[in-house]
């Protein structure tokens, strides 16, 4: 097992199982995430025999940075995994700090028709350590600490539930990477059973739902997942989530020219969300070469925004990051896939 993929609780259980005190887990975490050592033999408060035992049971294998592309406030990292698969993460500089958008799977099976990342079908889940290491390697590269994490890169995080949850626990741990739960956002296309599971975890993270449509018919066309879990069920689940967790939920709505950006869509969306503790994040669509969708013009986006506002819905327009380096939402990985196909 990779040491960066184990939660503190699981590490405590490991120590108990081998007849050691569980506080050793805390000591290991301090070495890993505070002092950032990369070998058990540097952990001087751990006795020699135990260091050797740990070295037998856990590895420090790292994914590696294959390539980095930079635009003013955005850097995109291409990571190579040990089985020669690739995923990407994006670092963004905001006025309030540094955030990283991590990938959760190699490829994605959700098949949203407007999303470039999903053109590559899912090859496998990412292990928790492969998500943790995306952050560790970026922090090491820029010599600064990350303040927030969004799980919005390649993949559907709730389709890799257990590993994503371990990842969240590790980065959120006050002795781990110490990213506050309120600075962690998980974005999903709406896997209802998993949203229900998530609401019972008592995590204070932010949940974002990729809604992207104002009615079932439209959503069916954009997001195949809607045929399994339809919008009415999804809205009910979001209401349940809000009631249970007392947390405001983000509704993501990508603005596609002449598809879902009309005045009537805005009104329909406002009716749907009326009275719910949500805020809508309008996402200017990032066009890609392979897909026909076009972005809504800024006037249309502003009008949609105004209509929602007038109807009393909280709404913001997402700041665009990284479209020049194909690092924006939905653009990750496709170019690289093509590039790497040439070599593999
Ligand atoms: N599978 C998860 C997280 C990954 S996608 C989810 O569906 O939420 C992150 C967000 O980017 C989603 O809201 C997704 O719908 C959106 N997105 C996908 N392609 C996009 C594009 N080309 N332009 C803008 N947003 C896009």
Topology:
Elements: H1 8-17, H2 24-34, H3 48-57, E1 64-71, E2 74-80, E3 86-94, E4 97-101, E5 105-106, E6 124-125, H4 128-142, E7 148-151, H5 161-172, E8 184-188, H6 192-198, E9 206-210, H7 216-222, H8 225-228, H9 231-245, E10 249-255, H10 263-273, E11 278-284, H11 298-310, E12 314-317, H12 334-343
Parallel strand pairs: 4-7, 7-8, 8-9, 9-10, 10-11, 11-12
Antiparallel strand pairs: 1-2, 2-3, 3-4, 5-6
Helix pairs in contact: 1-2, 4-5, 10-11
Bound molecules: S-adenosyl-L-homocysteine.
How would you explain this protein's 3D organization?
The structure is a single chain. This protein has helices spanning 8-17, 24-34, 48-57, 128-142, 161-172, 192-198, 216-222, 225-228, 231-245, 263-273, 298-310, 334-343; strands at residues 64-71, 74-80, 86-94, 97-101, 105-106, 124-125, 148-151, 184-188, 206-210, 249-255, 278-284, 314-317. With 344 residues, it is an alpha/beta fold. The chain has a ten-stranded mixed β-sheet, covered by helices on one side. It has a two-stranded antiparallel sheet with strand order 5-6. Helix 1 (8-17) packs across helix 2. The two termini are 27 Å apart. Mean pLDDT is 93; it is low at 337-344. The site of S-adenosyl-L-homocysteine (SAH) has 21 residues, from strand 8 and strand 10.
Entry summary:
This protein has 344 residues and is α/β, with parallel strands linked by helices. The chain has helices spanning 8-17, 24-34, 48-57, 128-142, 161-172, 192-198, 216-222, 225-228, 231-245, 263-273, 298-310, 334-343, and strands at 64-71, 74-80, 86-94, 97-101, 105-106, 124-125, 148-151, 184-188, 206-210, 249-255, 278-284, 314-317. The strands form two sheets. The protein has a ten-stranded mixed sheet, covered by helices on one side.
């Amino acid at each position: 097992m990779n040491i960066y993929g184990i939660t503190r609780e699981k590490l405590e259980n490991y120590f108990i199982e081998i007849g050691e005190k569980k506080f050793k887990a805390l000591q290991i975490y301090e070495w890993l995430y505070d002092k950032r050592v990369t070998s058990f033999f540097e952990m001087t408060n751990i006795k020699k025999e135990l260091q050797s035992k740990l070295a037998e049971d856990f590895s420090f294998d790292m994914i590696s940075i294959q390539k980095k592309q930079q635009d003013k406030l955005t850097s995109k990292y291409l990571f190579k995994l040990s089985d020669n698969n690739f995923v990407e993460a994006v670092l963004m500089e905001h006025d309030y700090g540094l955030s990283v958008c991590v990938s959760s799977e190699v490829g994605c099976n959700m098949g949203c028709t407007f999303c470039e990342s999903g053109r590559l079908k899912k090859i496998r889940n990412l292990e928790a350590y492969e998500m943790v290491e995306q952050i560790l390697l970026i922090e090491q590269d820029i010599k600064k600490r990350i303040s927030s994490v969004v799980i919005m890169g390649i993949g559907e995080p709730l389709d890799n539930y257990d590993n994503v949850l371990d990842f969240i626990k590790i980065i959120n741990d006050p002795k781990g990477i110490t990213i506050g739960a309120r600075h962690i956002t998980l974005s999903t296309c709406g896997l209802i059973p998993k949203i229900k599971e998530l609401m019972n975890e008592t995590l204070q993270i932010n949940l974002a739902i990729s809604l992207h449509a104002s009615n079932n018919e439209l959503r069916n066309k954009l997001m195949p997942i809607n045929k399994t879990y339809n919008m009415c069920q999804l809205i009910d689940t979001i209401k349940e989530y809000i009631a249970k967790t007392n947390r405001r939920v983000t509704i993501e709505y990508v603005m596609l020219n002449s598809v879902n950006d009309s005045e009537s869509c805005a009104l329909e969306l406002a009716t749907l969300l009326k009275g719910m503790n949500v805020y809508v994040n309008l996402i200017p669509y990032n066009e890609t070469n392979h897909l026909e969708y076009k972005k809504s013009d800024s006037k249309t986006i502003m009008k949609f925004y105004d209509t929602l506002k007038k109807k009393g819905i909280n709404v913001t327009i997402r700041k665009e990051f990284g479209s020049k380096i194909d690092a924006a939402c939905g653009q990750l990985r496709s170019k690289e896939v093509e590039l790497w196909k040439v070599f593999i």
